[in-house]
Write a structure and sequence with these properties.
- The protein is 23% helix and 33% strand.
- With 261 residues, the protein is α+β, with helices and mostly antiparallel strands.
- The protein folds into two domains: 2-80 and 223-257, no CATH class; 85-219, no CATH class.
- Strands 9, 10, 13, 17 and 20 form a five-stranded antiparallel β-sheet that branches. A three-stranded antiparallel β-sheet has the order 14-15-16, with no helix packed on it.
- Helix 1 packs antiparallel against helix 2.
- The longest helix is centred in the C-terminal third of the chain and has 33 residues, at 225-257.
- The two termini are 21 Å apart.
Length: 261
Protein backbone atom coordinates (compact mmCIF):
# COMPACT_ATOMS: atom_id res chain seq x y z
CA UNK A 1 0.00 0.00 0.00
CA UNK A 2 2.93 2.32 0.69
CA UNK A 3 3.86 1.95 -2.99
CA UNK A 4 0.58 3.63 -3.99
CA UNK A 5 1.28 6.60 -1.70
CA UNK A 6 4.69 7.16 -3.28
CA UNK A 7 3.40 6.80 -6.85
CA UNK A 8 0.54 9.24 -6.30
CA UNK A 9 2.90 11.79 -4.73
CA UNK A 10 5.01 11.84 -7.91
CA UNK A 11 1.84 12.47 -9.90
CA UNK A 12 0.92 15.45 -7.71
CA UNK A 13 4.41 16.92 -8.07
CA UNK A 14 4.25 16.54 -11.86
CA UNK A 15 0.88 18.28 -12.08
CA UNK A 16 2.16 21.10 -9.87
CA UNK A 17 4.82 21.69 -12.52
CA UNK A 18 2.15 21.65 -15.24
CA UNK A 19 0.16 24.35 -13.47
CA UNK A 20 3.31 26.44 -12.91
CA UNK A 21 4.16 26.35 -16.63
CA UNK A 22 0.59 27.22 -17.61
CA UNK A 23 0.56 30.08 -15.08
CA UNK A 24 3.77 31.49 -16.56
CA UNK A 25 2.30 31.25 -20.07
CA UNK A 26 -0.84 33.11 -19.00
CA UNK A 27 1.17 35.73 -17.12
CA UNK A 28 3.06 36.49 -20.34
CA UNK A 29 0.09 36.44 -22.70
CA UNK A 30 0.71 40.13 -23.51
CA UNK A 31 4.53 39.97 -23.49
CA UNK A 32 5.96 40.90 -26.88
CA UNK A 33 7.92 38.04 -28.45
CA UNK A 34 7.14 35.59 -25.63
CA UNK A 35 7.20 31.89 -26.53
CA UNK A 36 5.02 29.50 -24.56
CA UNK A 37 6.41 26.64 -22.51
CA UNK A 38 5.39 23.00 -22.66
CA UNK A 39 6.32 20.03 -20.46
CA UNK A 40 7.41 16.45 -21.11
CA UNK A 41 6.80 13.67 -18.60
CA UNK A 42 8.07 10.11 -18.53
CA UNK A 43 7.27 7.09 -16.39
CA UNK A 44 9.79 6.11 -13.70
CA UNK A 45 11.55 2.77 -13.34
CA UNK A 46 9.50 -0.38 -12.84
CA UNK A 47 9.66 -2.94 -10.06
CA UNK A 48 9.72 -6.37 -11.67
CA UNK A 49 7.87 -8.93 -9.55
CA UNK A 50 7.86 -11.52 -12.33
CA UNK A 51 9.90 -11.16 -15.51
CA UNK A 52 8.15 -11.70 -18.85
CA UNK A 53 9.32 -14.92 -20.48
CA UNK A 54 10.22 -16.61 -17.19
CA UNK A 55 10.04 -20.42 -17.45
CA UNK A 56 7.84 -22.14 -14.88
CA UNK A 57 6.94 -25.82 -14.38
CA UNK A 58 3.73 -25.15 -16.27
CA UNK A 59 5.29 -23.23 -19.17
CA UNK A 60 6.57 -19.80 -20.04
CA UNK A 61 5.17 -16.62 -18.46
CA UNK A 62 3.74 -14.56 -21.35
CA UNK A 63 3.62 -11.08 -19.79
CA UNK A 64 5.06 -11.02 -16.28
CA UNK A 65 4.35 -8.51 -13.48
CA UNK A 66 5.93 -5.06 -13.55
CA UNK A 67 4.68 -2.26 -11.31
CA UNK A 68 5.53 1.34 -12.13
CA UNK A 69 6.86 3.77 -9.52
CA UNK A 70 5.34 6.97 -10.83
CA UNK A 71 6.05 9.86 -13.17
CA UNK A 72 8.86 12.37 -13.57
CA UNK A 73 9.24 15.66 -15.47
CA UNK A 74 12.09 15.49 -17.98
CA UNK A 75 11.79 18.77 -19.87
CA UNK A 76 10.03 22.11 -20.12
CA UNK A 77 10.60 23.30 -23.66
CA UNK A 78 9.62 26.43 -25.57
CA UNK A 79 7.54 26.35 -28.72
CA UNK A 80 8.81 28.91 -31.21
CA UNK A 81 5.73 29.11 -33.40
CA UNK A 82 4.96 32.52 -34.92
CA UNK A 83 2.97 34.96 -32.77
CA UNK A 84 0.42 37.35 -34.20
CA UNK A 85 1.65 40.72 -35.45
CA UNK A 86 0.65 43.91 -33.67
CA UNK A 87 0.72 47.04 -35.82
CA UNK A 88 2.37 50.00 -34.03
CA UNK A 89 3.73 52.19 -36.87
CA UNK A 90 6.74 53.07 -34.67
CA UNK A 91 9.86 53.18 -36.90
CA UNK A 92 11.99 51.12 -34.51
CA UNK A 93 9.37 48.46 -33.77
CA UNK A 94 10.42 45.41 -35.77
CA UNK A 95 8.92 41.95 -36.13
CA UNK A 96 10.51 38.86 -37.66
CA UNK A 97 8.26 37.07 -40.11
CA UNK A 98 9.73 33.58 -40.19
CA UNK A 99 12.85 32.05 -38.67
CA UNK A 100 15.52 33.97 -36.81
CA UNK A 101 16.46 36.08 -33.80
CA UNK A 102 17.76 39.60 -33.36
CA UNK A 103 21.22 39.78 -31.80
CA UNK A 104 22.10 42.04 -28.87
CA UNK A 105 25.24 42.67 -26.83
CA UNK A 106 24.89 42.23 -23.06
CA UNK A 107 26.71 44.28 -20.41
CA UNK A 108 29.43 41.61 -20.08
CA UNK A 109 30.11 41.68 -23.84
CA UNK A 110 28.42 38.37 -24.60
CA UNK A 111 25.76 37.98 -27.27
CA UNK A 112 22.12 37.24 -26.53
CA UNK A 113 19.21 36.59 -28.88
CA UNK A 114 15.63 37.81 -28.87
CA UNK A 115 12.42 37.82 -30.90
CA UNK A 116 11.34 41.09 -29.28
CA UNK A 117 11.90 43.96 -31.69
CA UNK A 118 10.67 46.91 -29.60
CA UNK A 119 13.89 48.88 -30.08
CA UNK A 120 14.80 52.40 -29.07
CA UNK A 121 17.60 54.92 -29.69
CA UNK A 122 20.03 55.89 -26.94
CA UNK A 123 21.56 59.37 -26.57
CA UNK A 124 24.27 58.52 -29.10
CA UNK A 125 21.74 57.42 -31.72
CA UNK A 126 22.54 53.72 -31.42
CA UNK A 127 19.69 51.22 -31.83
CA UNK A 128 19.22 49.48 -28.48
CA UNK A 129 16.69 47.33 -26.60
CA UNK A 130 14.43 48.67 -23.85
CA UNK A 131 17.11 47.54 -21.38
CA UNK A 132 19.77 49.52 -23.23
CA UNK A 133 21.54 46.54 -24.85
CA UNK A 134 23.05 47.38 -28.24
CA UNK A 135 21.50 45.65 -31.24
CA UNK A 136 23.99 43.93 -33.55
CA UNK A 137 25.43 44.99 -35.86
CA UNK A 138 25.95 48.35 -34.12
CA UNK A 139 24.05 50.95 -36.16
CA UNK A 140 24.02 54.67 -35.26
CA UNK A 141 21.22 56.93 -36.51
CA UNK A 142 22.29 60.57 -37.20
CA UNK A 143 20.62 63.16 -34.96
CA UNK A 144 19.34 65.14 -37.97
CA UNK A 145 17.46 62.17 -39.45
CA UNK A 146 14.08 63.18 -40.83
CA UNK A 147 12.76 59.70 -41.56
CA UNK A 148 13.99 56.19 -40.79
CA UNK A 149 13.02 53.20 -42.90
CA UNK A 150 13.97 49.56 -42.45
CA UNK A 151 13.38 47.20 -45.35
CA UNK A 152 12.36 43.56 -45.20
CA UNK A 153 16.02 42.71 -45.84
CA UNK A 154 17.05 44.57 -42.69
CA UNK A 155 18.54 47.57 -44.47
CA UNK A 156 18.38 50.65 -42.22
CA UNK A 157 18.00 53.86 -44.27
CA UNK A 158 17.84 57.48 -43.09
CA UNK A 159 16.59 60.54 -44.91
CA UNK A 160 18.59 63.63 -43.91
CA UNK A 161 18.09 67.38 -44.61
CA UNK A 162 19.15 68.49 -48.09
CA UNK A 163 18.91 64.99 -49.54
CA UNK A 164 16.01 63.28 -51.27
CA UNK A 165 17.71 59.89 -51.47
CA UNK A 166 17.96 57.84 -48.26
CA UNK A 167 21.38 56.97 -46.84
CA UNK A 168 22.13 53.34 -45.95
CA UNK A 169 23.28 53.26 -42.33
CA UNK A 170 23.76 49.50 -42.07
CA UNK A 171 22.01 46.16 -42.33
CA UNK A 172 20.53 44.17 -39.47
CA UNK A 173 21.43 40.50 -39.31
CA UNK A 174 19.50 37.59 -37.88
CA UNK A 175 20.67 34.42 -36.17
CA UNK A 176 19.03 31.02 -36.20
CA UNK A 177 19.69 27.70 -34.49
CA UNK A 178 19.36 24.04 -35.30
CA UNK A 179 17.58 23.51 -31.97
CA UNK A 180 16.12 26.80 -30.68
CA UNK A 181 14.30 24.92 -27.91
CA UNK A 182 17.77 24.24 -26.44
CA UNK A 183 18.48 27.93 -25.86
CA UNK A 184 18.93 29.12 -22.27
CA UNK A 185 16.22 31.58 -21.19
CA UNK A 186 17.72 34.58 -19.38
CA UNK A 187 14.50 36.49 -18.80
CA UNK A 188 13.87 39.93 -20.32
CA UNK A 189 12.94 38.05 -23.54
CA UNK A 190 16.60 37.12 -24.05
CA UNK A 191 18.21 33.76 -24.84
CA UNK A 192 21.78 32.50 -24.90
CA UNK A 193 23.36 29.57 -26.68
CA UNK A 194 23.99 26.23 -25.03
CA UNK A 195 25.57 22.97 -26.14
CA UNK A 196 22.02 21.77 -26.90
CA UNK A 197 21.07 24.72 -29.13
CA UNK A 198 24.29 24.61 -31.14
CA UNK A 199 26.14 27.62 -32.50
CA UNK A 200 24.15 30.30 -34.33
CA UNK A 201 24.06 30.70 -38.08
CA UNK A 202 24.04 34.40 -38.94
CA UNK A 203 22.64 35.79 -42.17
CA UNK A 204 20.65 38.52 -43.86
CA UNK A 205 16.86 38.73 -43.40
CA UNK A 206 14.85 37.32 -46.27
CA UNK A 207 17.72 35.20 -47.63
CA UNK A 208 18.75 31.55 -47.22
CA UNK A 209 15.75 30.62 -45.08
CA UNK A 210 15.95 33.55 -42.69
CA UNK A 211 12.75 35.41 -41.87
CA UNK A 212 12.10 38.89 -43.19
CA UNK A 213 11.86 42.07 -41.09
CA UNK A 214 8.58 43.95 -40.79
CA UNK A 215 8.89 47.59 -39.71
CA UNK A 216 6.21 49.26 -37.59
CA UNK A 217 4.98 46.04 -36.03
CA UNK A 218 5.74 43.72 -33.11
CA UNK A 219 5.36 39.97 -32.76
CA UNK A 220 2.92 39.17 -29.98
CA UNK A 221 3.03 36.21 -27.62
CA UNK A 222 2.16 32.83 -29.15
CA UNK A 223 0.11 31.88 -26.08
CA UNK A 224 -3.43 30.70 -26.82
CA UNK A 225 -5.57 31.58 -23.80
CA UNK A 226 -8.26 28.96 -24.49
CA UNK A 227 -5.65 26.23 -24.90
CA UNK A 228 -3.90 27.22 -21.67
CA UNK A 229 -7.16 27.22 -19.73
CA UNK A 230 -7.93 23.70 -20.97
CA UNK A 231 -4.42 22.57 -19.98
CA UNK A 232 -4.91 24.07 -16.52
CA UNK A 233 -8.22 22.23 -16.04
CA UNK A 234 -6.62 18.94 -17.11
CA UNK A 235 -3.69 19.46 -14.72
CA UNK A 236 -6.05 20.38 -11.87
CA UNK A 237 -8.19 17.29 -12.38
CA UNK A 238 -5.11 15.05 -12.59
CA UNK A 239 -3.83 16.60 -9.35
CA UNK A 240 -7.18 15.91 -7.67
CA UNK A 241 -7.16 12.29 -8.85
CA UNK A 242 -3.66 11.72 -7.49
CA UNK A 243 -4.63 13.28 -4.15
CA UNK A 244 -7.68 10.99 -4.14
CA UNK A 245 -5.38 7.99 -4.67
CA UNK A 246 -3.37 9.04 -1.61
CA UNK A 247 -6.55 9.44 0.43
CA UNK A 248 -7.82 6.02 -0.67
CA UNK A 249 -4.48 4.36 0.14
CA UNK A 250 -4.50 5.99 3.57
CA UNK A 251 -8.01 4.71 4.24
CA UNK A 252 -7.01 1.18 3.20
CA UNK A 253 -4.00 1.32 5.52
CA UNK A 254 -6.25 2.47 8.33
CA UNK A 255 -8.60 -0.48 7.70
CA UNK A 256 -5.70 -2.94 7.74
CA UNK A 257 -4.31 -1.33 10.89
CA UNK A 258 -7.66 -1.64 12.71
CA UNK A 259 -8.18 -5.33 11.99
CA UNK A 260 -8.65 -7.21 15.25
CA UNK A 261 -8.32 -10.90 15.79
Amino acid sequence: MMRALSIASTGMAAQQLSVAVVANNLANVSTVGFKKGRWDFQDLMYQTLKSPGTTTPTGQVPVGIQVGTGVNAVAVYRGFSQGEFQQTDAPLDLAIEGDGFFQVTLADGSTAYTRTGSFKMDRDGRIVTAEGYTVLPDITVPTDTLALTITSRGEVNAVQPGSTAPTLLGTLELARFTNPAGLNSLGKNLYQTTAASGDPTVGSPGLDGFGSVLQGALEGSNVNIAEEMVNMIIAQRAYELNSKAIQTSDEMLAIANNIKR
